[in-house]
Structure formats: structure tokens, C-alpha cells
Amino acid sequence: MISIRGLSKRYGDIVAVDDVSFEAEPGSITYLLGPNGAGKTTVLRMIAGLTRPTEGNLTINGKGLLDFRDTLREIGFGLGAFTRNPQHTATQHLLWQARLGGVPAAAVGRVLERVGLEKVAKRPVGKFSYGMLQRLGIAAALLGDPRTLVLDEPANGLDVEGTLWLRELVTGLAADGTCLLVASHNLTEVEITGDRIVIMGQGKVLSDTSKDELVAQGSGTRPLESAYLEITASSVEYTTGGGEG
To answer: What keywords is this UniProt entry annotated with (predicted)?
Structure first.
């Protein structure tokens, strides 16, 4: 479980995140949505300990991130771009991650198979496509078989097969009791797999409700999209009808 209370982050006079509060429950997929610049990635970075909050607090499974002895067994992060040596193979990269996290090396083969990379385990990651790198990042997040998983745009770069694979992965994890917090722009997948949806705009929480309740607020043939657009209308800093300047 992830519990966030009054979380704020300021960079000088710029308020990136403003008094954000929400929870992500075990056995559930909570999506974090919002326009570019809404503050979603900043929130995820604060959960991961990469950015220090200005105010507020957050707990993971009832504790602070630094209170865990075996962090990778409690929470895994897939935050997009990650540090890697392009000459390392997928196996070497994950072995390095496992050593850092105190996870047995035997976990590497298991997660490579789980994300569908077992056949390219000996290929240098510098030759991976973006979709393959996404799978590798998810594999690293799964190394410790964590109770909680945080993913930032995990579907980016995935083809149709990869998107279907990811859908089965996240729903399967939730069915097994894992708590998932996922930042996404893919409303189709959100509607198919989501349980709860938190929408942010300009650093604030604009909506925090179940997927079914949010869909009920919409209209037309794509009710989730219409509800999302109505909620975020005043938070978008650009429009598609003209230039962005």
C-alpha cells in the first residue's frame, strides 16, 4: 500500500506538486493521470526517494522507504530511463541490480522469462529496442518479487503484442495481491485494467475516484476520455488548435 498525505515539492518559486494526497491499495491497479507537467513524475520520484519532498509524508506498506531492510522485496520501481552499460547483456545488467538490492542471482532468470526476454538474455542492452528496454526495466522492478510496484509509462515503446503482455502482467500481479501505482497517458489500457484513477493537473489532485465512477461522469462513445478532458480542461497549458508558443 502507498499512502501519500499533503505531499508538496517546490523548486524556488515554482510549485511542482501542491498538497497531494491519495492512496494505492493492495490487490489493485491505481492509475496516475494528467497532462504533461501535471506533477506525476515528480510524485513518483518522491516515492522512489529520488526527490525530497518539501512538505508532507508518504509511507509504503506502513513504513518510510529508508526503514526497509530488504527494499526490493517491498517495492519495485520502473521509472523509464535507467542507468545501464550498453555493453552489458540483459543478464549482466540484472545481476548488477540484484547485487545492489541483495536479491539472489537466481531471480534474474525468473524475471527475464517473466518479461519475455529469456531468448535475448545474452544480447548487449545497447542493441535493444525501446520496447525491449521497457521490459528490462520492468524485469528489474520485479527482481525482489515486491509487494508494491510503481511504473511510469510502462507501455511506451511497446508494440501490440507487448501491450497485451503488459496488460496480462499487471492484472495478474493485482490478482495476486500486489499494489500497483502506474502513471500513464494510455486511456484505453487504463479503462481496461484500472481499478482506481487519480488525475492531477498543475501539481494538484483534480480527481480521485474509482474507474467505474469516473467513467459514469463521462459521455459519448468514449466516456473515460470525455470525463478526463473535462476534469483537466483548465490545467492544460497548450491546445491542439494552434501553436504552442
So the answer is: ATP-binding, Nucleotide-binding, Transport
CATH code for the domain of 194: 3.40.50.300
Backbone angles phi, psi at 72, to 5 degrees: -65, -15
73: which 3 cell numbers?
Answer: 522485496
Q: Write the pLDDT tens digit of every residue in 134-167.
A: 999 999 999 999 999 999 999 998 999 999 999 9
Chain Cα centroid distance, residue 93: 21
Residue 142 CA to residue 4 CA, distance in Å, equals 23
pLDDT digits (tens, 9 = 90+) for 97-143: 999 999 999 999 999 999 999 999 999 999 999 999 999 999 999 99
Domain membership of residue 241 (yes or no) is no
Q: Which of 128, 146, 164 is the last residue of a domain?
A: 146
Cell of 81: 530511463
Distances (CA, A) of 235 to 45, 87, 174, 201, 209: 21, 42, 31, 5, 18
The pairing of strands 196-201 and 28-33 is parallel
Question: Do 46 and 97 sit in the same domain of this protein?
Answer: no
Q: Strand 2-11 and strand 75-78: pairing? A: unpaired
